[in-house]
Request: fold
Amino acid sequence: MGKSIIRITSHFQRTFTHYAHSTPLKCNVSQERLRSMSSTTTIKNSLSAVAFILAGASLAYLALSHHLFAANPLLIAVQIGSVLLMLWARKTFGRRSFHATASTSQGGLVTNGPYRYWRHPIYASLIYFVWAGQVQSPTVLSLAVATVATLALLARMLLEEHFLRAAYPEYVQYSKQTKRLIPFVV
Reply:
C-alpha cells in the first residue's frame, strides 16, 4: 500500500509539474509557488494516508483484542446508532469514490442529510463506535489505541477540511454553522 501511495503521489507531482511548466499562467502565481503548492499537497496527502493506516490498524487491534465491540445493551445501542449514522452519511454522500487520502472527490459540497449536523459524520461515527467499546472494560493499552485511532481520524478531518476550503469557497461558511463531531457542540 505504501508503494502505491508513493507511485500515486509521484504521478500527481509529475503531472502537476508538467502542467505548471507547459501551461501559461493567467494569474499572479509564480511557477515556483505552484511547485511549492504541489509539494505541500503531496505532503498533506501522505500524512492523510498515514493517518488512515493508523486508524485502520488501531481498529483492527481493538477488534482482535476484543476491545471494539460492546456487550452492554446501552453501549450496543450507541454502536448500532454509529453504524446507522455511517450508512446514512455514505448514502447521502452518493456514489463518490473512497480515498485513502483526505483529498476531495468529484461533485459539489454535500450539506444535506447528516452533513447538515456534522461536518464529518463518518469519522464521528467511527469515534463513537470505538469509544463505546472502551467504556465497558477499558485497559491502559486499549485506551491508548483508541486514542491513537481518534487522533488519526482527527488528523484526517483537519487535512480534509484544508482540501475542502481550497475546493469549495462556501465551505468556510458551512464550517461556521456545522460542528465537526457533535452536533451543536464540537
In short: The first helix runs from residue 2 to 22. The chain has one domain: 2-177. Helices lie at 2-22, 31-64, 73-93, 121-136, 140-167, 171-177. Residues 2-177 form one domain.
